[in-house]
């Protein structure tokens, strides 16, 4: 603990001295070192991350590195409110049994084979991660995997890893899959339609590629699973293991969610029609849906807000965004952007490669929101350098999502799923056994994205 | 009236290294829902409860997947019940235990039970050694007695 704290202080001071040495102003250097302390805080002291952003933001305010007005502006309240609305909505879907119903659908796969199971869990993991956040989706898929693997008495670990890797890939497919999706949409002006046209197809190509990789990498485990199916027969018991009463609440909840998705997908058209500022409908639709849910379930409204909304995480995001905004406010990101543009010789292809690979590698060890929050003001600073920003936003999105597959700590979905595996089955997946498949999947999928962004004029 | 006047001093407890199935058997025999877990130095290290056993045998995600009905008993439940024969009490016990000191009043004990959702309070001395235990029933009986006087 003391060693880590000493390392954090040492690196923070070093960042300050180094940045001043290379030409940053004192306020820029302070903003950079405080932001570095917050990043290191999340890396070394995950449970204390709020302490770091609270203290860091306070220092920035007291030292007049930024003013209160801009702290509020940069804290991206619109993104936070979007996430609050989605969390309330997901809370109601859970209460109504929607996710358990999805689990029961997986348990009812007819004429189950190992390949069919692999396909189902990869596709459902990816699609569910597109619609709700990755952590919510992984819990339900893990539940289905455990029940099926328990029934056929096979090790669930390979299937769990395949599901997590597919979840991280799937979370890049839409605006709602990952907090970085909505953050990027909000800052770049990209719409849901842009995501469906440009992110979703690449996500599908990555998913198909990893399914092929899984079939080869886990061929022994798949053969074993087929053998067990042959020995134990069909999954009759699993078919009737759980049921979800098809009550009105389930149907109405599904309807509200479906309408929300429809409006989110049409947000750009509606904004044009109503002459509203870009992304106004996108950011308010979850608030309208959750408002209706709270009016419908008014006795549970307080519970939705207090239990289903992860205030701990959202407050961390708000202050982290404010600290990243301070980098822009002080002009530190303009200096970084100029250096990066020079490094890439003002070539958008090289710049896209840098953003993609740095964000992939960075998010393999860091929380992707931290990384994306740091990168956004840098990308915004490219505006003044006549650089085409669009491929850079996609590079940031995919890097932030796909990098999470590389290491065991790369994304929250990895940590949550492996935590359940350890608790339930006492199976510990070590860093290097994950790295084997994680690195292959991470490098191959990021390469696919790189090729698409550089070669397809569609992305420029 | 103080807690020390009504607490049970003959505290039946289990050790962290005891086998979980044996501890569960004790709960059945004594018809109670929980027992304090006390280490070799007499210090309280946890609480072994029926709820803890249920948590152990059911998948941890049942609390997270929302509403559904088990139409069949999953295979894993039977296996996990067998695992109780190999599991130690320390693996199933709740580590955060609400305790009370001997000098607190009945109402303070009642307040702690109500606000901390505790069914029973192990009573500890200054060195955290368990010197007694009170259950909700003990508090209510003592309060009823006081009310009659």
Mass-distribution shape of chain A: globular
Largest interface: A-B, 30 and 16 residues
Output mean pLDDT of chain B.
90
Task: State the helix count of chain B.
Answer: 7
Short description:
Chain A has 460 residues and is mainly α. Chain A is built from 24 helices and one strand. Chains A and B meet through helix 5, helix 6, helix 8, strand 1 and helix 23 of A and strand 3 and helix 4 of B.
Essential attributes:
heterodimer, A: 460 residues, mainly alpha, 79% helix, globular, B: 149 residues, alpha+beta, CBS-domain, 3-stranded mixed β-sheet, two-stranded antiparallel sheet, 7 helices, 6 strands, 40% helix
Overview of the molecule:
The complex is a heterodimer of chains A (460) and B (149). Helix content of chain A is 79%, strand content 0%. Chain A is mostly helical and 460 residues long. In chain A, helix 6 packs parallel to helix 8 and helix 7 packs antiparallel against helix 11. The longest helix of chain A is centred in the middle third of the chain and has 26 residues. Chain A is globular and about 70 Å long. The termini of chain A are far apart. The relative contact order of chain A is 0.13. Chain B has 149 residues and is of the alpha+beta class. Chain B has one domain: Roll (CBS-domain). Chain B contains 7 helices and 6 strands, in the order ααββαβααβαββα. In chain B, the strands form 2 sheets. Chain B has a 3-stranded mixed sheet with strand order 4-5-6. Chain B has a two-stranded antiparallel ribbon with strand order 1-2. In chain B, a hairpin with a 5-residue loop joins strand 1 and strand 2. The model of chain B has no long low-confidence stretch (mean pLDDT 90). Chains A and B meet through helix 5, helix 6, helix 8, strand 1 and helix 23 of A and strand 3 and helix 4 of B. Strand 1 of chain A pairs antiparallel with strand 3 of chain B, so a sheet runs across the interface.
